[in-house]
Amino acid sequence: MAAPAAAGSGEGPRGPLLDDLMPWSVRPLRTGRPWVTAPDAACLRARWDRLVRAAGEERERLFAPTRARTQQSAVAALPGRPGATGRFARESGPCPEPVRILHGPFDEQWLLPDHRLIDVARPELWRVADDRQLFLVEHGRVPNDPGPAVSVTTLLPDGHSPAGRPGRVRPLYRRPGGLEPNLAPGLLPALRARYGDVVTAESVLAWILAAARPSPAGCVVPLPADAARWADGVELGRELLRLQLRGARGAERPRLPGGQRPYVRAAVPPDPGQLSYDADERVLHLGSGRVSPVPTGAWEFRVSGVRVLELWFERRTAGPGAAGLEAVRPRTWPQEWTSELLELVSLLALLAELRPRQEELADALAAGPGAGADALRAAGVLPVPEAARRPASVLDHREEGPDGQFALL
After folding, report:
1. Which residues pair with residue 16 across a beta bridge?
2. What Cα–Cα distance (Å) separates residue 229 from each residue in 236, 237, 347?
3. What pTM does this model have?
4. Which of 80, 96, 121 is the last residue in one of the domains?
5. 88 within domain boundaries
6. Per-residue pLDDT band at 4 (split at 50, 70, 90)
7. Of 209, 294, 350, 379, which one is least surrounded by beta carbons within 10 A?
8. Cα(78)–Cα(296) distance, integer angstroms
9. Helix axis angle, 335-367 relative to 201-211, nearest 10°?
């Protein structure tokens, strides 16, 4: 579904809107039942097994039907997935292999990839998700929040926002295989004419990562007047991109220099209970567990006004209100979570170190001349044709519809 155009002609404060630069966007996934996602893949398999073994009213209660999904719902398979399409009420087979997703900002979790369990799965995202794809995720806007406006991932993002109005998910490519950049028609030639032939779809993405900022009109992406400023911003954006890929595509995983790397100083207990931070000692406490050194920038790193480390920890500690299949969780803190925490601390610390350069870029763009929507309009890039806001037809094979019937497309 196309995002609605902002009021006016696509000009935000000091720059065009992201909605016009990357016109095809998709709303966040809506699972409808929280138990289909989890930080731990093993507990998803346990939840599935418990559900398919249940019968009658207990199975109905565990399934947690909604208006969009019941056990009798007839739905197609998720694109690119081998999942079953028969009514879930008849399901008794093995659990589908959980897939890694990005659950909100910087939180890698797992999802049961069964369309019968997900209220709104956004099949158009699944169709273009491959090893060439990059997903730009907008974060919910919170006034006066200094956190990043966008982030990027190779994983399928669910678009969840911890606070504020959820943003949109924007694939970099409209077709699998890295084909047809999701950029306004004519944008690349217009940018090459201004900044040189080195402009590519990924360099545009890098610029957006470095320069995008929220506004009441939507996410704004200021464009500089000169090629030197563009090159500096793209270099910064590539550093942000490399970090946020987190080892994908052969990139190095986030790693702080020696002497600054966080280590476990005291083992995380089976039930850590609470998370706290000692700024003087730069120690992260997980109950009696201790991780250090943890830079203040990592602890204070926020998205949509929410501290990322606190939210990450909260999602991994069972609350007293957990019920139904959500209550099926690891009994003790898995070692894998500690490893993921150490990497997340490193990632957030490195991103925080780049924040001053982003602020310098923002100040320079605000003070200097820019190439706004008027320049793009003069180049024929704006207004964006409506077809560019709709998903491309990417189907070169049949997709299985409900109850094994192939969909007519």
Report:
1. 11
2. 11, 12, 26
3. 0.93
4. 121
5. yes
6. very low
7. 379
8. 42
9. 90
Contact present, 294 and 310 (Cβ < 8 Å)? no
DSSP state of 94: P
> Does 220 reside within a domain?
no
Give me the chain's average pLDDT, please.
91
- How many residues can be counted in the chain? 409
With 80 as the cut, is the pLDDT of residue 12 above it? Answer: no
Residue 339 lies in a domain: yes
Using alpha carbons, select from 269, 388, 381, 246 the residue that is nearest to residue 331: 269
Q: In what order do the strands lie in the sheet with 135-138?
A: 150-153, 135-138, 169-171
Q: Token match 């909100």: residue?
A: 104
Run of H or E residues at 170: strand 169-171
Kindly state whether residue 193 falls inside one of the protein's structural domains.
Answer: no
Given its phi and psi angles, is residue 294 left (phi above 0), alpha (psi -120 to 50 degrees) or beta?
beta
Q: Largest Cα–Cα distance in the chain?
A: 67
CA distance linking residue 187 with residue 376, whole number of Å: 8
Identify residue 257 by its one-letter amino acid code. Answer: P
Distance CA 345, CA 342 (A): 5
Provide φ and ψ at 282, rounded to 5°: 55, 45
Report d(CA 198, CA 261) in Å as an integer: 35
DSSP state of 264: E
Question: How far, in Å, CA of 20 to CA of 381, rounded?
Answer: 9
Confidence of residue 9 (pLDDT cuts 50, 70, 90): very low
How confident is residue 29, by pLDDT bands cut at 50, 70 and 90? very high
